[in-house]
Amino acid sequence: MKAFFEGIQYLFVDILFAPMDLMRKLELSNWWAANLLNWIFIIICCGATYYWIKELKKHKDSGEDSQDTTAHSFLK
């Protein structure tokens, strides 16, 4: 049973967290390069938020959006 848990430890510590160790070492020399992945995710989220708000406005302008408070039976 001990070998099973050591195998899980090896998987996570030595294999799956290896990229995080590399980023930690990279941060000491170049902060921007170490956080490039974070900036990419921020840009993707900003783009998705912009698209979602644009679609909401399009539905509201076309009259498809129902703002009736009695839309659900439990709100009556």
Detailed description of the structure:
- The protein is mainly alpha-helical and 76 residues long.
- It has one domain.
- It has 4 helices and no strands.
- The chain has helices at 2-16, 18-29, 31-34, 36-62.
- The N and C termini lie far apart (58 Å).
- The mean pLDDT is 88.
- The chain crosses the membrane at residues 31-53.
What is shown here, in short?
This is Uracil phosphoribosyltransferase. With 76 residues, the protein is mainly α.
> What oligomerization state is this entry in?
single chain
Give the amount of beta strand, in percent: under 5%
Class by SSE composition: mainly alpha
Succession of helices and strands: HHHH
Which spans of ≥5 residues are poorly predicted at pLDDT below 50? none
> Could you tell me how far the N terminus lies from the C terminus, measured between alpha carbons in angstroms?
58 Å
Helix content: over 70%
Main beta-sheet strand count, sense and barrel state? none
Number of domains: 1
Q: What spatial form do the alpha-carbon principal axes imply?
A: elongated
pLDDT average, as an integer? 88
Total E-strand runs: 0
Helix count from the secondary structure assignment: 4
> Over all CA atoms, what is the radius of gyration?
24 Å
Transmembrane segments: 31-53
GO molecular function, one term: glycosyltransferase activity
Protein name: Uracil phosphoribosyltransferase
Keywords: Glycosyltransferase, Membrane, Transferase, Transmembrane, Transmembrane helix
